[in-house]
């Protein structure tokens, strides 16, 4: 994956705000710290305005992850190591085999058949099945897809999940190729982007509520090429925000986990994947 050059607010532009944003350079991206959601909105608005050629997507995490070189890592689950064990070519092959088996199961579901029976989606049905597995992931099947969202509030809310201390959480801002259709692959980079709200059946409410997108690179069959699947080269900014300020009711409220997952309302989840 090639390195992309992004544009960042100048020190003067940052100082025009009524608050202080901590900034430090970190390779091709920049790292910031804000105090609350309002400051987060102002900063991401500036980043979006300065990078109009890129499709801006977000990801919220309760902690950051790095690779062996100490660089931030945004690998799809199928390429991640299990604990401290090094991923081998054989294990990678087994993961793709397991995924293929689950794809075939998904494709037999009545709800899925209603999506893929049209000529528009017939050739894309394996990708559609993989996207469903990734977004619901009830059996924790690793996939070559990474979850992102177009909603800053959704990313902000996800950042506070599974967090049990008062340290910072993270919002990541990515600059992706501009998709021109529901399933879009950029020829130059090979990156595929799926807009889930236009793909998933109306009974699958979770993708709509989360304004979800999936991104992937061309699949690989050897661990030597894993870093080509790392989306850190598409990272514009890492933004840290105190966890205590996300949960503090005087600030902008996050979306509750039940509302983000919508398991009680999502008929697709209840009938097909639970």
> Helix coverage percent of residues?
25-40%
Low-confidence stretches: none
N-to-C span: 36 Å
Query: Any idea what the shape is?
Result: globular
Radius of gyration: 19 Å
Number of helices: 11
Beta fraction: 15-25%
Strand line-up in the sheet with most strands: 1-2-9-5-3
What is the SS-derived class? alpha+beta
In a few lines, what is going on in this structure?
The protein is 33% helix and 18% strand. With 274 residues, the protein is of the alpha+beta class.
Q: What would you note in describing this structure?
A:
The protein is α+β, with helices and mostly antiparallel strands and 274 residues long. Helices cover 33% and strands 18% of the residues. The chain has helices at 11-15, 37-50, 89-107, 110-116, 119-122, 125-136, 152-159, 206-210, 243-247, 257-261, 267-273, and strands spanning 22-26, 29-33, 55-61, 146-149, 168-176, 183-185, 192-195, 212-216, 235-242. A five-stranded mixed sheet has the order 1-2-9-5-3. It has a four-stranded antiparallel sheet with strand order 4-8-7-6. A hairpin with a 2-residue loop joins strand 1 and strand 2 (29-33). Helix 3 crosses helix 6 (125-136). It is globular and about 55 Å long. It starts with 10 loop residues before the first helix and ends with a helix. The mean pLDDT is 82.
């Amino acid at each position: 994956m090639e390195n992309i050059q992004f544009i960042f607010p100048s020190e003067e532009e940052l100082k025009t705000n009524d608050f202080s944003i901590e900034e430090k350079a970190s390779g091709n991206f920049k790292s910031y710290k804000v105090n609350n959601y309002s400051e987060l909105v102002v900063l991401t608005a500036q980043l979006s305005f300065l990078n109009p050629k890129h499709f801006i997507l977000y990801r919220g995490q309760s902690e950051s992850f790095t690779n062996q070189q100490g660089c931030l890592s945004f690998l799809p689950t199928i390429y991640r190591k299990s604990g401290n064990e090094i991923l081998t070519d054989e294990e990678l092959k087994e993961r793709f085999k397991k995924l293929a088996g689950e794809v075939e199961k998904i494709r037999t579901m009545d709800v899925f058949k209603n999506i893929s029976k049209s000529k528009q989606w017939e050739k894309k049905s394996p990708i559609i099945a993989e996207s469903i597995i990734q977004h619901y992931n009830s059996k924790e099947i690793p996939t070559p897809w990474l979850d992102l969202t177009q909603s800053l509030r959704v990313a902000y809310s996800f950042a506070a999940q599974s967090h049990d201390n008062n340290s910072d959480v993270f919002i990541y801002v990515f600059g992706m190729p501009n998709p021109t259709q529901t399933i879009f692959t950029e020829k130059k980079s090979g990156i595929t982007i799926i807009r889930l709200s236009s793909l998933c059946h109306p009974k699958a409410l979770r993708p709509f509520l989360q304004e979800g997108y999936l991104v992937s690179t061309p699949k690989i069959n050897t661990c030597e090429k894993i870093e080509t699947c790392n989306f850190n080269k598409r990272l514009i900014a890492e933004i840290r925000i105190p966890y205590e300020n996300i949960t503090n009711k005087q600030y902008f409220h996050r979306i509750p986990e039940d509302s983000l997952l919508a398991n009680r309302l999502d008929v697709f989840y209840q009938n097909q994947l639970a």
